[in-house]
Amino acid sequence: MAEKVEHHLAGHRSDTWRVEASLIIGDGNDAASIDLGTWDKKTGGAIDSDTLVYYPGGMESPIALGGRRTTDNVTLTRRYGSDIFDQVSPTPMGNLSTMGALNVMAGRGVVRITQTPLDNDGKAWGNQQIFNGTLKRVQFPEADNEGGAASVIEIEVSIKGFPTVGNKNG
After folding, report:
1. What is the separation, in whole angstroms, between the first and last Cα of the chain?
2. pLDDT tens, 140-152?
């Protein structure tokens, strides 16, 4: 009898992830969360560190002492469409469209990003990476009347601390 191979154990493709984001406006009981939907592309988020090297005397080999950890910014890209960006949500700042909220919250809005692995059938499995940070930049779609590319929006998030690991179901 042939041994059953679970596809997610054989390797993972870059297109088998679900990346979702939400924008949080306000604090405590007054906070409002705006669903920014599923994003097509995520770059960044690497955990990096500074390197401190000590060079002892007597021509001995250098000693790597390690250093502080940092998390790179995360950039998300997706198709721009009125299905998400023209929706209006109540916020502590009044009713705002998603686009309007992104506009006014750059530099201060809190963004939560989840990256969940999917199997070949599109079902979530394993643990998700969770990034929290501040909305740093919003790049509205480029305009080109001679072009034929899809309009995309891009946001950049400055990550607070380090990504955490969460369960796909919670």
Report:
1. 37
2. 988 888 888 889 9
pLDDT for res 86: 81
Distance of CA 92 to the CA centre of its chain: 24
25 contacts: CB under 8 Å, gap ≥ 6: 31, 32, 33, 34, 91, 92, 93, 96, 101, 105, 109, 110
Note down the domain range covering 36: 13-45+73-167
pLDDT at 170: 46
Residue 53 belongs to a domain? no
Residue 83 has pLDDT above 90, yes or no: no
Task: Give domain status of residue 56, yes or no.
Answer: no
Q: For residue 113, is it within any domain?
A: yes
Task: Tell me what the mean pLDDT of segment 76-96 comes to.
Answer: 84
Quote the CA–CA distance of 13 and 23 in Å, as a whole number: 28
**143 in a structural domain:** yes
State the total domains in the chain: 1
Q: Is 8 left (phi over 0), alpha (psi -120 to 50) or beta?
A: alpha
Q: Looking at residue 126, which CATH number applies to its domain?
A: 2.30.110
**153 membership: H or E segment, kind and range:** strand 152-159
Q: Which residue has the tokens 């005397």?
A: 57
